[in-house]
Amino acid sequence: MTTIATDGKSMAGDGLCLDHTDTIVDKERRKVFRLKDGRIVGGAGNSFDVRAWIDWLENDKGGDCPISSDRFVGLILNPDGTVDWVDHKGREIRTPAPCACGTGQDYAYGAMATGAPPARAVAAACERDPYSGGAIVVEYCDGREGDGGVLSLVGQVAA
Fold this sequence. Notes:
Elements lengths: L2 E4 L3 E5 L2 E2 L5 E3 L5 E3 L5 E5 L2 H12 L14 E5 L5 E4 L5 E4 L3 E4 L2 H9 L4 H11 L7 E5 L19
């Protein structure tokens, strides 16, 4: 699946992508994106569902939610720092930051509870969760340059 984490200021996600037999097919699959309206979104689950969900959000949720798997979960980081948790039916519920989703969410929550930023929290999850790994993408709510949107190797993620 993956690990997505946010602290209300930035969002990070790993880049590991597995096929239906758990064979690694990509280590730089982007799962965190900035939408045209400034929201930052991250999705865990089937890569096709993540992409379809993002396209659906970009098109103002026209029609039914396109997510086909009940294993999908997503986070939306709004420009004002609020966070919405999204289920496999596209339903949203406001949730407090810090927040994480995906198979490595427990590790990410633990890391953020000790003060780690989302990128470090995802890196911690990648160390323990067999379904998280590869490159990490970070996007900042304030549009800051630097790591925002740049793929970083897990061992090179800055604090």
